[in-house]
TrEMBL record:
Name of the protein in its database record: Hydrogenase formation protein HypD
Keyword Metal-binding found: yes
Gene name of this polypeptide: hypD
Highest taxon of source: Bacteria
Source organism of the structure: Laspinema olomoucense D3b
Keywords attached to this entry: Iron, Metal-binding
């Protein structure tokens, strides 16, 4: 397939790795901000193709992983109501809350349904007028337009038994939080190409010079990522700090304007808790209180008195900030596995711990350049 074979070509990847080695004269640390890129890096051994003095670290690019445990516990509480049909993307069902997960509620009789689009929930609501249908809206800017469209259509069609528990988060504030941290390691970023497909990359043009970090909008295939690393190292070696677009086949500078318009119509920017990290100012989306409060599940259900607590054995916060890697955790692969996860990064399809568990359980033999 075009853009698959081309961007997974082994010879091209090796040539990119050699080009990176030729221009690298000092140690550099680069963070990819997307869980999909993390899985590609670990699966294809991209980090092992690079010179020893280039370090790749994994950021909070998994939307499932950063969903705060308090919202997971709220979702479990709502899904436990007998009058509720709770709808979610499949990767949220195994994310651990304080005491259990959504799959446990489903196993004990809760009506929990996996959907592939938030808009699917509107048909479920129309077919079940005596039930409350709730969708768990999770994700970065990539999935938020579909969530917004579901709420917008519900309002237009006057579907009164539909609501949403929202946990959408925004990438640029998280990048600034990482760059502002006292333990900052990051010297350059690979920005998530799918987020930029929606939002463009003008927001990054203020971050790059402010923190003196190159930001490269990057795709998801091995050659994409290696090209992104090359552009990043080239800037670092020359003392530049600009935004570049490696993923030009999908990303335009201004992004997708219709998608941005529906986001502005339905959502407002709010502070948001990030699991394992804490609150980041202006980093979340929630339904506009003035126009769409009736679709906010937090307004429909009594969620007071829920006590949430992270597992003391899980270091997901340090992993999501790039301070630690999965193998640094004593519980990794022992007390924490995909079947019995202590934290979201082990169970999510985009989580760093899940990637290492799946692809790095056995040491791969890969020659460095």
């Amino acid at each position: 397939m075009k853009f698959v074979d081309e961007y997974r070509n082994a010879t091209t990847a090796q040539d990119c790795a050699k080009a990176i080695a030729r221009i690298t004269t000092r140690p550099w640390t680069i963070m990819e901000i997307c869980g999909g890129q993390t899985h590609a890096i670990v699966k294809f051994g991209i980090d092992e193709l690079l010179p020893d003095n280039i370090t790749l670290i994994h950021g909070p690019g998994c939307p499932v992983c950063v969903t705060p445990i308090a919202l997971i516990d709220q979702a479990i509480a709502i899904a436990s109501h007998p009058e509720v049909i709770f709808c979610s993307f499949g990767d949220m069902l195994r994310v651990p809350g304080t005491a259990q997960d959504l799959l446990s509620i489903k196993a004990t009789g809760g009506d929990i349904r996996i959907v592939y689009s938030p808009v699917d929930c509107l048909k479920i609501a129309q077919e079940n007028p005596n039930k409350q249908v709730v969708f768990f809206g999770v994700g970065f800017e990539t999935t938020a337009p579909a969530t917004a469209m579901a709420v917008y259509q519900a309002a237009q069609q006057n579907i009164s038994n539909f609501s949403m528990l929202v946990s959408h988060v925004l990438v640029p504030p998280a990048m600034e939080a990482i760059l502002s941290a006292p333990h900052r390691k990051v010297q350059g970023f690979l920005a998530a190409g799918h987020v930029c497909t929606i939002m463009g990359y003008t927001e990054y043009e203020a971050i790059a010079p402010k923190y003196q970090v190159p930001i490269i909008v990057t795709g998801f295939e091995p050659v994409d990522i290696l090209q992104g690393i090359y552009l990043c190292i080239k800037q670092l070696e020359s003392g530049q700090a600009q935004v570049e677009n490696q993923y030009s086949r999908s990303v335009r500078k201004d992004g997708n304007q219709p998608a941005q318009n529906i986001l502005k119509e339905v959502f407002e920017i709010v502070p948001r808790q990030w699991r394992g990290i804490g609150e980041i100012a202006q980093s979340g989306l929630n339904l506009r209180q003035k126009y769409y409060a009736q679709f906010n599940a937090e307004n429909r259900f009594d969620l007071t008195g829920i006590q949430s607590e992270e597992s003391p054995d899980c270091m997901s916060g340090l992993i999501l900030q790039g301070v630690k890697k999965p193998h640094d955790c004593e519980a990794f692969g022992k007390r924490c596995t995909p079947e019995h996860p202590l934290g979201a990064p082990m169970v999510s399809s985009e989580g760093a711990c899940a990637a290492y568990y799946r692809y790095r359980q056995q040491t791969a033999v890969v020659s460095r350049v």
